[in-house]
Fold this sequence. Notes:
Elements: E1 2-11, E2 17-27, E3 31-36, H1 43-50, E4 58-63, E5 66-67, H2 73-83, E6 84-87, H3 99-109, H4 114-127, H5 143-155, E7 161-165, H6 173-190, E8 193-197, H7 201-204, E9 209-214, E10 217-220
Parallel strand pairs: 3-8, 3-9, 6-7, 7-8
Antiparallel strand pairs: 1-2, 1-4, 4-5, 9-10
Helix pairs in contact: 3-4, 3-5, 4-5
Amino acid sequence: MLIIRELCKSYGGARPRELLRRLSLELGRGEYVAIRGESGAGKSTLLNLVAGLDRPDSGSIMLDGTEVTALDDTARTLMRRRQIGFVFQAFHLLPHLTVAQNVALPLALNGIGGLAAAERVEAMLEAVNLASAASVYPRELSGGEMQRVAIARALVHRPLLLLADEPTGNLDPDTAMQVLSLFRERVKSEGGTGILVTHSERAAATADRVLALTVNGLEPAAP
């Protein structure tokens, strides 16, 4: 489903900083993994590369048989739109759209509208306990509520690959566990793949396996 081979990425000018060095990872359908690591280790960079938001210096990323690193900008945009759900740390909600409209955006971009879209949006808002907030705007929400909207938006189009960057940082413990259970259930039921980046041991424990990102690449995390 997702195959990463020998991925390298550095940033900087004359003296670039190497974040990822020959990183490899293979995930099958229905597999959900958590990645932990120190701040600045390259966890968010890895997610951005997998999503095609950035390009590696070298190496390959294969998603469902498609070589992501070989796609042009337009093709990578279409791939993200159809196959990837991304929960960002910064939410990235559109302030001029209501909660329901924000959640419906991936469906609209994929040509799904009308009753089918409305039913999916309603179901996702119920799943994150925000059905009553469908008609309000992001500015009227708390940070935790905005995070839940972002999560609903990432899941609504039933992506093959779910990428979540610290998705529970603004949530209380009970809501966090509810959301993590939802992630896991969707990955398993849709036969997709999920990667959770988190500092939380409790959040990581919901995954099938936990990996640590270090200068040597990805390794099984210490218990």
